[in-house]
């Protein structure tokens, strides 16, 4: 497994496994504590695993958490997704930086997203399963959502949006969220 820094988002990493493929299919390690530790992350910090299943065109995000924030490892375990990270850490050298990835079940690459970054994705295939490994239990009172179509972010979503949650549909602009001081990670 190889870890690569994401230049547009300070502290973000892409973990790419080395699959072993044969006539049966493939096998690969999707999490390796030693590799995670080698880039300065604590592999024991992750306390919750979650999974979402989306159909083609579904858009989830842009989401982040207030309070202590939330770091996460994100992997598309089946299908393909267009994944987006926006750095909202005011003290970060990549503040307001954006990074885009195509994550897929074929590669099983995992993206590490530091606390204080917004995250969202769109399903590119008829079925896309996305796995999350999160560093603290979810508290809905700390959820923050930013408009996926905010012109300031100009995210090049690859497909028309077929479905999204009401919360995501009604999300405020980035400027509105940045004006609210209580959202900021501690």
From TrEMBL:
InterPro entries: RmlC-like, RmlC-like_jellyroll, RmlC_Cupin_sf. It comes from Streptomyces carpinensis. Signal peptide: none annotated. This is dTDP-4-dehydrorhamnose 3,5-epimerase. Transmembrane segments: none annotated. Pathway: Carbohydrate biosynthesis; dTDP-L-rhamnose biosynthesis. It is an enzyme of class 5 (isomerase). Its EC number is 5.1.3.13. It catalyses: dTDP-4-dehydro-6-deoxy-alpha-D-glucose = dTDP-4-dehydro-beta-L-rhamnose. Homodimer. It comes from the Bacteria. Residues 164-186 are annotated as: Disordered. Catalyzes the epimerization of the C3' and C5'positions of dTDP-6-deoxy-D-xylo-4-hexulose, forming dTDP-6-deoxy-L-lyxo-4-hexulose. Keywords: Isomerase. GO terms for molecular function: dTDP-4-dehydrorhamnose 3,5-epimerase activity. Belongs to the dTDP-4-dehydrorhamnose 3,5-epimerase family.
């Amino acid at each position: 497994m190889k870890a690569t820094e994401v230049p547009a988002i300070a502290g973000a990493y892409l973990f790419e496994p080395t699959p072993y493929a044969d006539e049966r299919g493939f096998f690969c390690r999707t999490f390796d504590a030693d590799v995670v530790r080698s880039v300065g992350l604590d592999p024991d910090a992750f306390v919750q695993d979650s999974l979402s299943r989306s159909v083609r065109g579904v858009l989830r995000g842009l989401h982040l958490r207030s309070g202590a924030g939330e770091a996460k490892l994100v992997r598309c375990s089946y299908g393909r997704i267009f994944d987006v990270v926006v750095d909202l850490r005011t003290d970060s050298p990549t503040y307001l930086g954006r990074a885009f990835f195509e994550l897929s079940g074929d590669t099983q690459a995992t993206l590490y997203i530091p606390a204080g970054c917004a995250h969202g994705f769109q399903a590119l295939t008829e079925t896309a399963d996305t796995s999350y490994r999160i560093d603290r239990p979810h508290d809905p009172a700390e959820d923050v959502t930013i408009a996926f179509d905010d012109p300031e972010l100009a995210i090049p979503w690859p497909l028309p949006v077929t479905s999204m949650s009401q919360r995501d549909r009604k999300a405020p602009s980035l400027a509105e969220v940045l004006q609210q001081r209580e959202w900021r990670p501690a």
